[in-house]
Structures are given as structure tokens and as C-alpha cells.
């Protein structure tokens, strides 16, 4: 059941008596991986977001020192993926369903005595839901510290390995995701089907962008025929190994920060 997660860090393998007897529960870090099942072009499986999220988390937890008590919950494989639902195979929850699910899982963790809860999201279409859930949960219980993280934002070396265009526009099934999948699940990657497809360019004077400070709403079919937004043809296993290692190292640092975190006190 644990997949990429080290068995000793997999929360469902614990008994209720072991959980009851835990010391320092208020600082023990509980991590909820949240991915998606959605199209990733003709060359990648629909499990990409979930696979990358759990793969990075598993590698990080295997490197994390024993003195930092941390456990991973089973991944939430389904997410809010309606931007991709014109492509077969995409499975999506509504924003409200995902929000409710996250909050009810978190409330169960709180009832068990834990006070540090990480939402480890790996799908670019739902960071806002993590942020809403985290704020609501902390507002409901002031001693509940909830961290709405996105896996791509932990420290990593993507800027050393990807082209500038890919860093800006390769937002789905491009070089980075394909390379990491070559490192994690190479038998599930069909490189002979990989394509390069970037969205149509906006007028040079436009202040708007697909993502960023001034975005516009879009669905994938507005930007891509293949489902790819980026250049998958440049992906390599070597880049994937390096990206995976850097993401895992960055996540280890983040988990240590969460373990040591205390809400700043007003003076």
C-alpha cells in the first residue's frame, strides 16, 4: 500500500494505540499528498501529478532524519481537473468536493491530537483550494497549523536544467514532468509519442499571461491540441534524476522547517 513512501513513515500502518501513545504530537508532521488523475498528452499516463507528488515525498521521507517525526497519509489521487476534462481519462472533483474532503480529513487528524498538517499538492490547477482549506482550518482551530504547499515551489534546480521558454510556458506534460516520470516510472513513458506544443502567443503589448500576475481563465483545449503545454521532446532520464533529487532535498528542508515552526508572537 505504501508505494514510494517508506513503510515506517506511512500513517495507515500505525495502530490506534501507537497513535494514542505518541509523544510530541503537537509537532509531529502529518502530510497529505494531493494529486490528480488527468490527461498528460499522448506520451504520459494520467497518473503523472499523483505519481510525482508521492515520488518526491517518498524520496524526501527516506532521507529525513529519524528525529523529525513525520508521517504520510494515503494520497488523494483525484483533484480539481476540470480544465482538462475535454480529454478522455481525466477524472475531476468539483472545487467544493475537494475542499470538503480536505477539511474533513484534516479535522480527523486534529481530533487525533496532531497540530501540524501539510497539504502537499502536486497539481497546478488547485493551489487556491489548498490555501482556502488551510485558512479555514486554522480559523476554526487556532492551534492547528496548516501548510498549503505546492511541490513545484520547494527549492529545486529547474532553472539550471530547463530553457527559459520552458520555465515560463512549459506548464503541463513538458520537459520537467516528462523527465521526472522517466526517473520515477520509465516504463510508463512513451517518448516516441512526445511532442512540443506551446500555446498561441499573446500580442507583445499585452499585460496578460496564461499564468502569473495577470492571468486569464482557460481550459487546456484553448491552448493545446495534444494536451501538452511545453516541450516533452527534450526530456531525459538524467534531468529527471537531478530534478527529483533536488525536489526531495528541498522538501526535506521544508519538513524540518514545519517541525520547528511556531506561530510568530505579537509584541
Which features would summarize this protein structure in a list?
alpha/beta, 267 residues, 4-stranded parallel beta sheet
Quick recap:
The chain has 9 helices and 6 strands, in the order αβαβαβαβαααβαβα. It is of the alpha/beta class and 267 residues long.
Report on the architecture of this protein.
By secondary structure, the protein is an alpha/beta fold. The protein has one domain (22-260): Creatininase (Rossmann fold). 38% of the residues lie in helices and 9% in strands. It has nine helices and six strands; from the N terminus they run H-E-H-E-H-E-H-E-H-H-H-E-H-E-H. It has helices at 16-21, 48-63, 95-111, 127-140, 158-161, 164-169, 175-184, 220-223, 237-260, and strands spanning 29-34, 70-72, 116-121, 145-150, 196-197, 230-231. A four-stranded parallel β-sheet has the order 2-1-3-4, sandwiched between helices. It has a two-stranded antiparallel ribbon with strand order 5-6. Strand 1, helix 2 (48-63) and strand 2 (70-72) form a beta-alpha-beta unit. Helix 3 packs across helix 4 (127-140). The chain is globular, with a radius of gyration of 19 Å. The model has no long low-confidence stretch (mean pLDDT 97).
